[in-house]
Fold this protein.
Amino acid sequence: MQSMNLFTSLFFSLFSLTSCQKDSLPYSNQIDDDKMLLVITPPSIHNHYYADAYDDIVAFDIAYAKHILGKDNVIVLGDAATIDYLKQHLPEDILLQQNLEDIWLRDCSMVMPYAPIQFRYAAVAQGNQADADYVQEKFNAFANKYKIKFSTSPYTLDGGNFVDNYNGRAILSDRFLEDNHLTYQAAKAYLKQALGLNEVAIIPNDDPNGLAHADGQVMFIDNNTIAVTDYNEPAYQQLIHDELRTAFPGIKLLKVPTIRDTTIWDARFGSSCGVHINSTVTKHHIYLPVFGNATDDQAIQLIQRNSSKTVVPIDASLVCRMGGSVRCLSWQVAGENAKRLIEAARQ
């Protein structure tokens, strides 16, 4: 009887251990407040606009996701055919079948991942306001499906034209003034009040006939350090630096070497090839676009020397001709919103 009790005890101990191990099998994404979730999506395989770039976008998204894994969290969305292909290259528990209307999730989603707020998607990004509204409605249907919580603003602003340090400081281009018929003073007052910001800079944009997004011009690489695209135009560069120094007393500014590319994929949008500033910045990492050109190593070393975060180079040469790269192609999510999406992908 005693030996039977010992056998039974050992059996249930082994069963319990096995069950526990099964329940705690390692997932690709870890629910952790120290990690940010990046959501990226290729286009649908049936999308005609992106047809000739589809393979390049998918290849970029796969490589980007692999670089994020283990550092932050990542989810890749896609239609059924694309997800079937992605399963051959990425863990299934980071894939979520969802067909959205566009790949530039940065612009139609939300800003400020720790206190998310959504502005109206600007017409210029899609060609007209009706199409921009439709793209955002499709994104919001997805967000509502997974109970993503966010507030809204009646004003127009693409996510690419909002760069912040997640700690009360933000930078926008003056396109925000133009789109919303606001004065410089009124815009700053609204942003501080509605978004709870302490300091706001509104810089002159570098793309008056295009998107005019600030995230091709500036990025916070630490709370008190901003990397700025080197335009090799002293007067214009000085205007940007003056506004940043006025808005953020004591700020440290770095000019990042840039070889601007003139390749055009869509006549409405300039190329972002050569623009290292279009980086995705999380708590501990800077996912920095590189292009196989002479400024890659200079940009990596300069930013790494001046930031406490780890620089992770991402080859953006396949997608930059379309007008954006690493930051433009990712939506940043945190907290309970991130948890919901991570758990949905696991299921």
